[in-house]
Amino acid sequence: MDKKQICIKFAREICDILDISVPAIKFVSADRMRTSTQIAALTPDAVLIRNDMTISPELFFAIAHELRHSYQIANGADLKEYQTSDIIGDEKYNLQPLEVDANAFAALIMYDFFGVVPRFQNLPESVRDAISSRMEQIRKEYE
Fold this sequence. Notes:
By secondary structure, this protein is mostly helical. The chain has six helices and three strands. The mean pLDDT is 94.
């Protein structure tokens, strides 16, 4: 299986969990991302993935994260207040409820699928605490 097939298979599994349709998966150049560290992005018609990414835990985390955003939108998430990190800074960006939820969901997927627990060491303690709290809520919802 090549990288695209692996990503599509993983996306299908996540979409089954979320009960949403599988969006197109498109590999794009890194310059299509908002920041140099961004791995994936959700657009109205696809999940975009940097074509220089190798199969890795970070890649699967990013896919699960973006698919959770797709789930949020499919379930009526209000994007009016949502702002990007280049506008409000990293901590405020990562404390937005939609980001906390997507990070928490992706972290649970990483644990359930791969036995890996993301530690979010690059994020402030306030964000780590919010993600941890949301993980517990999501875990209870899916039990």
